[in-house]
From TrEMBL:
Record's compositionally biased regions (Basic and acidic residues): 428-452
Biased composition, class Polar residues, residue ranges: 406-415
Pfam families in the cross-refs: CobN-Mg_chel
Domain CobN/magnesium chelatase: 1-340
The protein's name: Cobaltochelatase subunit CobN
DNA damage among keywords: no
Keyword Amino-acid biosynthesis attached: no
InterPro entries (alphabetical): CobN/Mg_chltase
């Protein structure tokens, strides 16, 4: 389950409550109705198995709600120790522990790591870089490389007093046993294609699970946009609904046109985010979605004079859109017909010739795409030889290299990237064993250990309740000043 800080603030802990309930755990409150811990729901009351849940909080969630991470980890540890009903948490922990031992990790460390269920970025870092690599589509050939990036950045475990220990193989074992990827949506303003965070987190998680399990998980959103109304829907349905009601809607397009440059940019951004979902969840983005986007933004099926708008407001946005569609064809996500291929290649090439290379992530340094375009527009009847030559010159001028040299350099860059992944140890938290198999560790585990720090001079400490009193006094003083100001204003009415 993906955990976001902004979502938790809006839904006030529904995700966390869901995780606890699945595990057969409930919060424990003090006399002031504050959560102070967790406790088990007895098996006789639960009357079902305890469900295992892996949690993937964002970096912001980790920073804003460290207390929730502690409580959620307590829930995992509490639930895993129980045997009153079928316990999938315990079963999975036993499997993970055995696999870690087989990989060479010491038994005591394997036992601890096997009960880790919370994984996110290393302390201080935010984002898993899935969106960046997805956008630089000329830099990778297979989505396996993107899954590796997700695991590399999200492979830090939190729990049992540890705060961000490097444990990518433990994350992989958890991914292998995951069959559903879940996120929540509480906002009616921001959609799953409005920014790259949605696909880099939920999409990245889904991709990583698919690569480890060999099959795609059910990837769903728990939609909580209206009070007292909750529904679960597939990511495919969510993307389709947003496309129809927003991005392919003539009224939305008219609204964006009024924003000129920025509106054109929003149009290109949604295509980029559609691409992100295509790569991370290919089962959720079928060819129909690309054909409909092409029909609206390239063929102008609604007669909105959209090409003229792009030419005047932001021609590079149109270049980005056509290039991304061509890239989806080049990478075999979209099996477009020959007419569509030629039309897109011609639109992209003419835009480059007239406006120069946009140099966005997938155009400037993407010799594979540009070579494909050259091959298509060189077909008799597509574009004139003069335009073909001018296109090549524009692309080569942008990087001051021939297309052939760009392709050679890119191949070398790809090799360096892949070699960097391959050099990673298959078991990065594996400890060096002492001589003769004594099992003693010679290296420490990377990360942070949570410890209570006691000040020698207690009189200098400001307890949390004291800090709260200072805040209350400040607020009261502010209210007093506001009241004085209102009295001096002579009771003037609003708007004066």
């Amino acid at each position: 389950m993906v955990l976001w800080a902004c979502e938790t603030i809006r839904h006030e802990g529904i995700n966390e409550a869901t995780v606890l309930h699945l595990m057969g755990i409930k919060p424990k409150w003090d006399s002031s109705d504050r959560v102070v811990g967790v406790e088990a729901i007895p098996g006789a009351v639960l009357q079902r198995p305890r469900i295992d849940v892996m949690m993937n909080p964002s970096g912001l969630y980790r920073d804003l709600f460290p207390n929730m991470i502690v409580y959620l980890d307590q829930a995992v540890q509490t639930a895993s120790a129980l045997s009153d009903v079928e316990n999938l948490i315990r079963k999975n922990s036993d499997r993970i522990r055995q696999r870690l031992i087989e990989s060479g990790i010491a038994e005591n460390q394997a036992a601890e790591l096997s009960q880790m269920r919370i994984f996110t970025e290393t302390p201080g870092n935010h984002g898993n870089r899935v969106s960046e690599l997805t956008s630089f589509s000329g830099l990778w050939d297979k989505d396996d490389e993107i899954a590796k990036v997700f695991q590399k950045h999200e492979g830090y475990a939190y729990g049992q007093g540890k705060w961000g220990i490097k444990a990518p193989e433990v994350l992989r074992e958890n991914l292998k046993m995951s069959d559903v990827a879940v996120h929540t949506m509480t906002s009616t303003v921001i959609g799953v294609m409005d920014n790259d965070d949605w696909f880099q987190h939920l999409g990245g998680l889904s991709l990583a699970i698919r690569k480890e399990r060999g099959e795609a998980p059910d990837t769903v959103l728990v939609v909580q946009q209206k009070p007292n109304e909750l529904k679960v829907e597939s990511i495919s349905k969510t993307i389709g609904r947003e496309l129809r009601t927003r991005y392919l809607n003539p009224k939305w397009i008219d609204g964006m046109k009024k924003e000129n440059y920025a509106g054109a940019r929003e149009m290109s951004k949604f295509v980029e985010h559609l691409w992100g979902w295509q790569v991370t969840t290919p089962f959720a983005v079928d060819e129909v979605k690309w054909r409909e986007t092409y029909a609206v933004y390239v063929e102008d099926k609604y007669g909105l004079d959209i090409k003229s708008f792009f030419s005047q407001a932001n021609p590079w946005a149109y270049q980005s859109i056509t290039a991304r569609m061509l890239e989806s064809i080049r990478k075999d996500y979209w099996q477009a017909d020959e007419t569509t291929r030629r039309k897109l290649a011609a639109e992209y090439a003419v835009n480059v010739v007239e406006q120069g290379v946009a140099c966005c992530d997938h155009t400037c340094n993407n010799p594979m795409l540009n070579n494909m375009v050259v091959n298509i527009i060189s077909i008799p009847g597509v574009l004139s030889p003069e335009i073909v030559e001018r296109f090549k010159l524009a692309v080569e001028k942008a990087l001051k290299k021939t297309l052939d040299q760009q392709a050679t350099d890119m191949a070398q860059t790809k090799k360096q990237v892949n070699d960097g992944f391959d050099k990673q140890s298959p078991s990065e938290t594996k400890k060096e064993q002492g001589k003769e198999g004594d099992g003693k560790s010679k290296t420490s585990v990377e990360g942070y250990k949570m410890e209570e720090v006691n000040s020698q001079d207690k009189s200098t400490e400001l307890p949390s309740s004291g800090a709260q009193w200072y805040a209350i006094l400040f607020a009261m003083a502010l209210l007093v000043f506001v009241a004085i100001g209102m009295r001096r204003s002579g009771g003037r009415t609003k708007g004066e």
